[in-house]
Design a protein that fits this description.
The chain has 139 residues and is mostly helical. It has a domain of 69 residues. The protein has 6 helices and no strands. The longest helix has 28 residues.
């Protein structure tokens, strides 16, 4: 009994530490303000940060307690599309904040066509995700 309680406390504190570190990294790098700047919605930065934190908390609760709501397919499709757009924006803003794109284009000596490189990376991610999804749920 004591062993289970101790493991629960250690797991909970470890999860809180890791989640706090991820949220701190996202905030320190300035990903959320970068997204707000690109979308010209700087006045909603606090709302974006709150949404990211609540999404992390709710996602952890769903995973820990194996909560499986029965939702309509159309709702799950809209949720999946929104989640994909958010993750894509987050990754793009992180790459832009870290100047990955400029270093990448300079190393490849790429002066024109960067939009095609970015589009092909995005399409590759989408296709890879769809292949994984259909293989995972085919069984």
């Amino acid at each position: 009994m004591f062993h289970d309680i101790l493991l629960s406390i250690v797991g909970l504190t470890g999860g809180i530490s890791i989640a706090g570190g991820i949220f701190a990294a996202i905030t320190t790098v300035g990903v959320i303000p970068q997204i707000a700047e690109v979308t010209r919605t700087q006045k909603y930065v606090k709302s974006y940060e709150t949404a990211v934190i609540l999404g992390g908390i709710i996602g952890n609760i769903i995973i820990i307690f194996k909560f499986n709501p029965f939702l309509p397919v159309w709702f799950m499709a809209i949720f999946g599309l929104g989640s994909g757009i958010f993750v894509g924006c987050l990754a793009t803003a992180l790459a832009e904040a870290l100047n990955v794109t400029t270093v990448f284009t300079r190393r490849l000596r790429l002066h024109t066509g960067i939009q095609w490189v970015i589009l092909s990376l995005a399409l590759g991610k989408v296709i890879g995700s769809l292949i994984y999804f259909f293989r995972q749920y085919k069984q």
